[in-house]
Amino acid sequence: MSSDVVLHEESTAAATATATATTTDQERRKASSDVESSNHAHPKGSGDDWMVILQLAFQSLGVVYGDLGTSPLYVYPSIFPDGIKDNDDILGALSLIIYTITLLPLIKYVCFVLRANDNGNGGTFALYSLICRYAKVGLIPSQEVEDRQVSTYQLELPNNRMLRASKVKSFLENSNFAKTFLLFATMLGTSMLIGDGVLTPCISVLSAVGGIKGATSAMTEDRIVWISVVILILLFMVQRFGTDKVGYTFAPIICVWFFLISGIGIYNFIKYDPSVIKALNPMYIIYYFMRNKKKAWISLGGCVLSITGTEALFADLGHFSVKSIQISMCTLIYPAVVLSYVGQSSYLRENNLAVSEAFYKSIPVIASQALISGTFSIIQQSLALGCFPRVKVVHTSAKYKGQVYVPEINYLLMLACVFVTLGFKDTVKIGNAYGIAVVFVMCLTSAYLVLVMIILWKTHILFIFAYILIIGSVELAYLSSVLYKFSEGGYLPLAFALFLVSIMYTWNYVYRKKYYFELNHKISSVKVHRVIAETNSRRLPGMAIFYSELVHGIPPIFEHYIANVPALHSILVFVSVKSLPISKVPVDERFLFRRVLPKNLLVFRCVVRYGYTDVRNEQEPFESLLIERLKNFIKEDHVMGLAQLGDNDEPAQNIRLIGDGDEIVNEEEEGGGADREIEALDRATEAGVVHLVGEHDVVAAKGASIGKRILIDYGYSFLKRNLRQSNEVFDIPHKKMLKVGMIYEL
């Protein structure tokens, strides 16, 4: 028996039987709150294969950590823009850097945030999806009971369910403001992270190329800028080769880089001033603030640059795995970066005037890769959840399914990087902008993690308070500092984020309005029966597949089609495409079939469920897979019908008595009902399959406000005209496709 879920709209017994079967299958699949991506995004069994984990750990060096690795290039010049006034300030700054790197990247992300992955996928949308699964905070009413039967949907929860978890969950579910705020915050955080992906390449490449200026006077500022632009363009051009190849290309380089900076750090520590080891005492942070007061607070904006790229540990998780990130971070990255700052501090204690050139060697490009890859993953997630216009997502590795490339986004990022580089021309203002994007996303991640702790993990309240007090206070202090430099370039990520949020909100707003329009104008089963009865004499050989996003009921496009083409195919399937708030839906659990009764109509409804990282058109032809699953459904449907008949006292129409009535023979057991329907399905597919796709023109309803008209008639229409159509997303052959036009007044 296939694990496709079977459900009759008129039969609760059938639904119960299938739910039991699926739940039993689900119980065999163990899931927990810290599921490895290697168990889901990578081949089965690779979670226990340490060779695969070590390969991913090595590959992650070339993708995830470049920004952390090159941050020593510009941190101290940003902390001391006016020079070093007191030699002990170096100890205070070093102590700040060490404890910042320890608290945020190491403890917060490696120990806690990575555990909050969504079946191996990270990022703001992954956390939002995780919350959506356990609290009904989605704004589209497409939830079904059967969704929770998907094996990857529900994680294993702790047994000690606490009252505060249910209270928080109830508040989120009953407050429209909370639902809207969560979605808006997710969009804003995602936009900030994408903005981070623009600023990372700019500051890294500009800083690295700027180091050449000290070696030759021929290197002018304009030449530095144009060389940086060329390097940036080359960087984005190689993204199409995928994370796998790019990672293996950069990994050896950056591995050597980390060994070099740690070795140089040890050398400087021994040669210049080993007493900087005193910075391990956090009291030097207090002394630093007592001496410098407001200037010390402002310098936090420079200190935060030491953890730039930290969010990439989580955002890039879908490309790798939890263990691989933890191994690479703890064994190489953290000690190498700390040693680099220790060495710089030792050098500066003897050479105060060299603060602006304390570390002016870097390898261009490396740092830029981390958040570019993360941006591709985030766009894929937001696309599936209806929060971003349709774009092409290319899976670049057959071995590691989480590694994706989005061509349109790649070239938009490239143009944005070029414009920022040409516009700002130096790293000071870019650094100010950079800090705001980094700290804002970190604060949002912490807020979502607290919700995960309360609702999912049922963490002890004292531990939650400790997390907020320690991690939250540190991040808020950094946020207040970077906001101080808002007018000095800090406005850039906010402006960029607001632009992206406007696109995402416009698309999501109309997406929701369209769904509610279809829901309010859906066709009842009784009306479908009547329409088909009226056109029964005009049933054409073949199969028609109607596409919509409506999960509950028949979409209004069906009635519109019948009004203009008064003939129907012999078999009708209404396909609803639905994205679940999980990363992956197993193929054998993807199709949820229902039948429109009576059976002789041969009309079916099918909900096709995808996770936000699932491939929709590259693994197998959608049409053949749907037909195969429909045949399985028909077989199971008739078997379940027989099971119900066994509980009845009287025989039904498909039971006939033989002889004196002592023996009961079922026609379906003789191959009657199921075989006949499958034969009819085979004849229909041989006659031809037609895919009917709705071509909806969306307009604002009469009497709508000016803002609503601008949003729908201009904003959404512009996005729709310039982006991919639904048939391209599902790879529907043009020869088999028929578009049905219809106007939705929202």
TrEMBL record:
InterPro entries attached to this UniProt entry: K+_transporter, K_trans_C, K_trans_N
NCBIfam families (alphabetical): kup (TIGR00794)
Domain K+ potassium transporter integral membrane: 56-524
Source organism, top-level taxon: Eukaryota
Keyword vocabulary terms for this entry: Ion transport, Membrane, Potassium, Potassium transport, Transmembrane, Transmembrane helix, Transport
Similarity annotation: Belongs to the HAK/KUP transporter (TC 2.A.72.3) family.
Biased composition (Low complexity): 12-24
Transmembrane segments: 90-110, 224-242, 248-270, 296-314, 320-342, 409-428, 434-457, 464-484, 490-511
Ranges of compositional bias, category Basic and acidic residues: 1-11, 25-39
Keyword Transmembrane annotated: yes
PANTHER family: OSMOTIC STRESS POTASSIUM TRANSPORTER, POTASSIUM TRANSPORTER
Compartments where located: Cell membrane; Membrane
Domain K+ potassium transporter C-terminal: 541-746
UniProt-annotated stretches for the region Disordered: 1-45
Topological category with respect to the lipid bilayer: Multi-pass membrane protein
Pfam family, one: K_trans_C
Record's function text: Potassium transporter.
Protein name: Potassium transporter
Primary localization: membrane
UniProt source species: Penstemon davidsonii
